[in-house]
UniProtKB/TrEMBL annotation, chains A, B:
Belongs to the HMG-CoA lyase family. This is Hydroxymethylglutaryl-CoA lyase YngG. It comes from Methylobacterium hispanicum. GO terms for molecular function: hydroxymethylglutaryl-CoA lyase activity; metal ion binding. Gene3D superfamilies: Aldolase class I. Keywords: Lyase, Metal-binding. The keyword Zinc does not apply. Coiled coil: none annotated. One of its GO terms (biological process) is ketone body biosynthetic process. SUPFAM superfamilies: Aldolase.
């Protein structure tokens, strides 16, 4: 059996949420259906947050209503609080992804409440969801560092993971929210979390803010992680770094995996086609490299010989 | 003793050579002197190639003449043939870097001769240089794949390394000339080459053409490699991929190394300042990320609290 790497596509959530343009609902639906057809087993479609806070994703319910659900694809929505969870259940999501930061400052800035208050809300959400067949994933944001507080103690991260597990979630994501992680730190944290969460339930969410995204994937994979978030074209960004790259790029990650002999179940050529269409949707160039350079196997004709 | 990673700066050679603008000689000298002051033990300054083939580097001799040589910095020049070696010796370089591709098609396209003819010329060069105190490094270009021929057999790469060693060179570089390498391939080749070349004599030269540059560094480091080429700002490029990134980015690499606890001897803040000045020199944005996002330790003030 070949080794496997599972990619969850997050471009229409973590990517679009930071774009100043509103991508039309029909375009979102068309893109997500095409991503599902390219083979994703998991797609984070949108976010049930306040439409005032994130107008780019104010059409989350309409997007879910318009999708052609592909058997074998889990359609996920990010949910910050009980009100969002209600809306997500009404929209018939397959899974909700709860998010709270380990950094108190980041959670207060991002969610308007303490991490403890976020976790209390999550307990109520899990109670509501229980028995509905809807999955629950929970994300530790700023797990590898906070842009306001800096390093976060590993024990605090582990404690949040254990509180998620005590709630009975199906999976846990460790998120490098603003791209502060490094490979040694990643290997260390994955080794600490895997024994309790297990490879089937652990997702790593990296940003390429400082160019280390795929190096961190490599370190996490070597430490036993198998599930990774990524955004088509490397969409996404960092509110503190104008011009910085965003999430790790799906097609670059998939190209790396395939070159290393890891199976993803994904059609890389189809992903490259979809990535090349992104500038039309968002109105600017995107950071992904493989869509510009082609796959390593896409060879070029030899140029005419030079005189010596 | 802390672990160490040695970075050879190549922006003024591998970066500038592909720029359509001619960077003024005085600006080149100022930049190289500033790079030396930032702590580089090795800088590839320029290339003694045909000025007609690479007009951007036609001032190689003037640049060498204008440098303020810093004790402890080795000033290197790329040299493709005996004529270039003569010019390099006249310019009082500390070390010459010979380059031939393992791919016959690439060497004919790039150098106008077969790899065998390149190696014959190198033998004459080494004879000339012997006893002069000038060092000799030799590079295997397209060691991880050729954009015309595709994969190159490992045995062919190893044979070229052994021919370099038989010439009596001081060091060998394995170059991923157009960014086709992947981490598994890198680990495998480094493991094969290290026993004969040794970590002190082996340099890895990666391009970030498909986003894997720093992942490849990580894999090479884990396999025992310690010396890496990198270009300030991620300058450089690929003639087959307009818009693709170039060499791995010096300041991103150094940030990764320092975050991992590896010593480089380099002043990262000074490198970031120099990288931020590059768009003025080359007339366009550059791909490096840390110069945009800041170091992970460069924290931000917490924003005002949101209402829940």
């Amino acid at each position: 059996m070949s080794e496997t790497l599972i990619v969850q596509e997050v471009a229409t959530r973590d990517g679009f949420q930071i774009e100043p343009v509103f991508v039309e609902t029909a375009e979102k639906i068309r893109l997500i259906d095409a991503l599902a057809a390219a083979g994703f087993s998991r797609i984070e479609v949108s976010s049930f947050v306040s439409p005032k806070a994130v107008p780019a994703l104010s059409d989350a319910a309409e997007v879910f209503a318009g999708l052609t659900r592909r058997p074998g694809t889990v359609y996920v929505a990010l949910v910050p609080n009980p009100r969002g969870a209600e809306r997500a259940l009404q929209a018939k999501v397959d899974e909700i992804n709860l998010v709270a930061s380990v950094s108190e400052t980041h959670n207060r800035a991002n969610m308007g409440m303490t991490p403890a208050a976020s976790l209390e809300g999550f307990a109520r959400i899990v109670e509501t969801v229980r028995g509905s067949g809807v999955g629950v994933n929970a994300t530790v944001a700023t797990a590898f560092g906070c842009p306001f507080e800096g390093d976060q103690p590993v024990d605090k991260v582990l404690a949040q993971v254990e509180r998620y597990r005590a709630l009975g979630v199906d999976g846990v994501t460790l998120a490098d929210t603003t791209g502060m992680a490094n490979p040694r730190q990643v290997a260390h944290l994955v080794e600490r979390v895997l024994p309790s969460v297990g490879a089937a339930g652990l997702t790593l969410h990296f940003h390429n803010t400082r160019g280390l995204g795929l190096a961190n994937v490599l370190a996490a994979y070597q430490a036993g992680a198998r599930r990774f978030d990524a955004a088509l074209g490397g969409l996404g960004g960092c509110p503190f770094a104008p011009g910085a790259t965003g999430n790790i790029c799906t097609e670059d990650l998939v190209s790396m995996a395939h070159e290393m002999g890891l199976a993803t179940g994904l059609d890389l050529a189809a992903l490259i086609d979809l990535a090349r269409d992104l500038p039309r949707l968002v109105g600017h160039d995107v950071p992904g490299q493989v869509a510009k350079a082609g796959r390593p196997c896409d060879l070029h004709p030899a140029p005419p010989l030079k005189a010596a």
